[in-house]
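Morning!

As promised:
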Amino acid sequence: MLTNAQRRLLFIFLAVCFIGSAALSEVLRPGHQEYLRAARPEADAGVREKEAEKSVLAKTSFQALIPTLLGVREVLASLMWVRADDYFHRGEYRPILKMVRQITAIDPHQLDVYATGAWHMAYNFMDKRLIEDGIQFLEEGCRNNDSVYDLYFELGYMHYDKTKDYRQAVNAYRESSTRGTSLPGHKFAPAYVRHQLAHAVEKMGDIDAALEQWRTNLKLAKDTEDLGLKPGQAAGPNTMAARHNLYITERRMNERLAASAERAKDAAEAHRLWQKNLTLADEWLKEFPGHPDVSKDRQVAANQVSRLSAGKLVPLDQTDPKIRFTITRIAPRKLQVEGSIDVLNLARIWVQFQDKDYLTRKARGFDFKMNECTLEWENVQIRQGKFKHVIDLDRDPADMGRQPSEIYPLKADEFEVVFTFNPRLQAAFIQDRYGWNGEGLTAAPELLKVDASRGARMEGKEYPLRYVEKVVVLKRDDILGKEKKVLYKSE
Amino acid sequence: MAVAIRAEGLTKRFFQRGEVVAVDHLDLEVETGEIFGFLGPNGAGKTTTIKMLLGLIFPDGGKAEVLGYPAGAQEMRRLVSYLPENPYFYDHLTGGELLDFYGRLFGIPAKDRAKRVDSLLDLVGLRNDKAKQLKQYSKGMMQRVGIAQALINDPKLLIFDEPTSGLDPVAHIEIRNLIESLRDQGKTVFLSSHQLSDVELVCDRICILNYGKLVKAGRVDELVAEGRTEITATGVPAEVTGRLTELTGAVKSDNEKIVVTCSDENLVNDILDVIRGARGRVISVVPLKRSLEEIFVETVGLAGPHRRIGTMNTLTRD
Amino acid sequence: MNTWVIARNTFGDSLRKRVLLIFLLLAFVMLTLALLLNYFTAREQSTIFKSTQLTIILIFGALISITTAVYLIPTEMERRTIYSVLAKPVQRWEFFLGKFLGGAMTVAFMVGLMSVALILVLFVLAAKPQTSAIETTAAAFKMNEWLARCQHEFLLVLRAIIVLYFQLFIITAIATTLSLFLAPTVNFAVTALIWIVGSFQSFLGLSEGILTRPLYYALPHFHDFNIMGSIVHPFAGFQVNHWAYAAGVSLYAVAYALVIVLAGAAVFDRREV
């Protein structure tokens, strides 16, 4: 037994420990709050609320539960993700939408949930209206995980592949290329991010910038190799890929400019550009003798140089694709689009069906969009100058058992069917025929569109984009009517 | 002679459905070098007293000193050892490990500890079971290892609570001999036991506790000898028998033989004189001894409705 | 010294408790179950695995802590082993502290075993090619990359386990001291309740009110031990010196546990056995 004096000492020591523990917990408080803060971005300035409101899932009572989940949020999020993945593998996509939103609300650092969730929205639901939600979801993920490249890269890819909005793709890829990875010790994004950036810059039309980006990529790849750094630790030795892409971009630019010069009957300029390609190929072959692709390129360039040297100019005329078509209601909610267009085989025509004022209507909110707005498109292939496509608004495109009216509400009074022939979205040999910027296209003034914002920049000069577009407006009754009926026929 | 244990007015109360006085103003003195028997029926307060002496529980009144230290003092526990009733030790340990563990608690250096553990195991006959886990020990082996642990610190005073319970007769004798040899080494043994025959054989002094009160105490030989003398004779005339009856009041006659029981030593010669004077023939003069058991039963009474058997069990786990 | 002797003995005794082994076995089963998540990408797998497994270790660790601690003293009383020990020159506080330390050592050992299993599995996972969702071309296995990842994972898990263990250290202290007043089953429930309340108490707002502030400091701050985000998402850019925080929170645990255990020792010092 302790004496009373010893007990007094014990209690004093006990009090000191208690005060010490209280003081320590105060010292720890900022750190704890930082761990807490970073895990609760939804509390930050209401940004997330605003985003969530107009996105796939409006704020639910579920989110009110989140603060109580401290300590289990990561594991709960992980387990929910395993469950969501389970739904996916069983082909049940619908619960996933809500779940990914809940998961990222609980734990906003689940990169793969953002990436895969956005992919589900933009791809698997096959509901074109949700693509922008997938993009918003990724944008939220980027904000919550600003230090890593991953989600910016996914965002870039979605713009690049799904919406073909190359300007946005470039922005996202550029952000991505300046971030590190989520893996230990990786300070730089992998090389493919910068390669993808260069491709997007090229698709956007700024060839000068694309060339510059390839040069940067090449230099970084070389530096990395010189440093003997291991792949994954830095950019990766993609020297060869960067070099080859730089060559192709430069060659393609010269080809495009030469086609344009020849169309303008400027033989000297065309000669100069083909000569440039010849030199380019020679330089490449000096370093890599006998490279098959480049040898072929060299032959093409040499032929063109000798043709032009001989004064044989073959200026192509501008082509009017003379787009003509019929829109027939073959059943309620089923529109058959059939027509002809005078372009090369395997070209594609973009057929888009939407509310007449889709952009203003869908801006009224997520619920309104899902209940009232309609959007569908298809990039239809042209064979022997003809195309045929059924805009089927009477089915679930993903066979998920949804009512057609859930995907295609058809609530607007008027709808428009938009037919677009855009040379940029065509294969290379088709681009050459009509000009990469559509220089070789002509059409009636009401059909020929000129868009400087999507134009090109090559050797310091700006070129607007020319494309052909025809819009047909239909009434709702036209689409919902029962018997077969021709709704529109070109003059 | 120095005093090993001294208790004055030691009192302990428990509260469970009313107050129970487990030990009631107990005065006790155990001298150094003796074997002291501490007797009493179940629930008399024996284990409670022992726990107070060891400082496991604290008295509500009175005070106790052990080897000159206040009961329970750290210094006192260094010199005392305790064998609880029905001892139960950490059964994940082997016999050797258990003794080593207790040796450490006394701060015995490793080298001495190893030697001491072996010699103690020898002493209690567990040498061959040193590496066996205690959970494989029989009750008797457990008791032996308990005795061994009580000796690990070479104590001056040993407090044994029922050391022979559960042992076979041979082991009984061994333990008895051991306790006697401990006294021969100058140690004091405080022995709480039901085994009255053991107590009678080894104890120098005893006390009997009932209802927490000391009801009898004294030297064993004095207690048991506090008896009578039985004189058997023949050929005593009947009128003489009448005189003897007047003297002692306890004369039995059986044909020619008479048996006179006398509880006053001073009368023995007078009786003999009377018999001889009447030409009677004295066959035997036998001083009668009582067994401790008789004394015990006489003191605490037979089990009856008034006895509180087991009252204390739930409270003190004895 | 005696404290250490008793602690070691308690440790040896506790390790033979069958219920603890069952907990450990269950934990191991759940640890290996995670390997079934093989169809996820390496990063997903690592995220899911680390978060679930650390939670499993925390929960089973808490179960082991409480189960061990609630019986430390009562079993001694029940088996009456305490008498022969306290009759020796052992101070009551030494005994109490020794029992607590023995319990804490048991928990450390169990958590250590589970952590080794966790780390081994993480090393296996780290050998999987690290690819993003889009770039799926499998990279070749590279030894030094794998070793670097293993080192990274090891340091993360080490930090997580240290912080996790000190949380259990407090739980053990609470259950040990409460065992002086409460029966084991009641103690189990009460300690578990304190654990849960302490984990969520930053949301109870106790630190806000002047009246509730003492209660805020009196309750253990288990919420401070939640560093899971920085373990599962090491890239997430928390502006915290992780190791300093881990050290601070461990120190807090020691100070707080000392308060609890010494209070228990003070009570036990005057307690009849």
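Chain A touches chain B through one residue (CB under 8 Å).

Hope this helps with the figure draft.
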